[in-house]
Amino acid sequence: MPVAPDPARTIPVTATSPQVTPEVLIPSAHPAPPAGLDGLDAVVRRHLDAITARDLDAYAATLGEHITLVLPGGRVCSGRDRVLDAVGQMFTTPRWTQDFTELRRSVTGGTAFVLFDSVYREHDEAGAETGRARLLLGLTLTATPDGWLVHADHSTPLPELR
After folding, report:
1. Measured between alpha carbons, how far is residue 38 from residues 49, 109, 138 in Å?
2. What CA dihedral angle connects 75, 79, 80 and 86, to 10 degrees?
3. pLDDT, tens digit, for every residue of 1-48?
4. How far apart are CA 41 and CA 27, in angstroms?
5. C-beta atoms surrounding 135 within 10 Å
6. Which CB contacts under 8 angstroms, 24+ apart, belong to 13-22?
7. In degrees rounded to 5, what are phi and psi of residue 71?
8. What distances in angstroms separate CA 161 from CA 42, 118, 120, 132, 157, one per listed residue?
9. What is the SS3 assignment for 85?
10. Interacting residues of 83 by C-beta distance below 8 A, sequence separation 6+
11. Strand 23-25 relative to strand 96-108: parallel, antiparallel, unpaired?
12. Angle CA(52)–CA(159)–CA(130) in degrees, nearest 5?
């Protein structure tokens, strides 16, 4: 059942780029779902596994309807359909891998943030590495009656690896 917006808890967000649509974000009024933190671990694992397997259906199952994706180059995709289009294009690109190492996790009520150090690698047809990028990947998840879902996925490029 949708929660009616409470004006005292509404945070206006203004657009800072033509690619960003202004919207109103309302903090989750839902308690953590029955699956609790174990459910959080499972959806984070499914999200990362879907990326490494390039499985768009599995990836989609981890997303909230109003997901925002910030790509390493700064492109912002808002909404499930736009995010799936962008990620679907990435998944069709051959010969890349991505590793994730969790750095930090915080959970407050029905909101969780998980930060990863990630290394994206490109390979040639023989499997030799041809390029790589180091990223910080931040996932914000919200508890819904159906379980935890990714609400924001933000990749920040870091200095080159040596």
Report:
1. 16, 14, 19
2. -20
3. 333 433 443 333 333 333 333 333 344 444 544 456 769 999 999 999
4. 21
5. 19
6. 17/76, 19/75, 19/76, 19/77, 20/76, 20/78, 21/78
7. -80, 160
8. 30, 11, 11, 8, 11
9. helix
10. 63, 67, 68, 69, 77, 153
11. unpaired
12. 50
- The structure's pTM equals 0.76
Question: By C-alpha distance, which of 98, 109, 97, 116 is closest to 154?
Answer: 116
Asked whether the beta carbons of 69 and 87 are under 8 A apart, the reply is yes
* Token pair for 18: 């033509």
Which secondary-structure segment (H or E) carries 49? helix 36-53
Q: How far apart are CA 159 and CA 137, in angstroms?
A: 14
DSSP H helical ranges for 61-127: 80-92
CA separation (Å) from 150 to 31, 54, 85, 162?
A: 16, 17, 16, 32
Q: Give the Cα separation of 132 and 97 in Å (integer).
A: 9
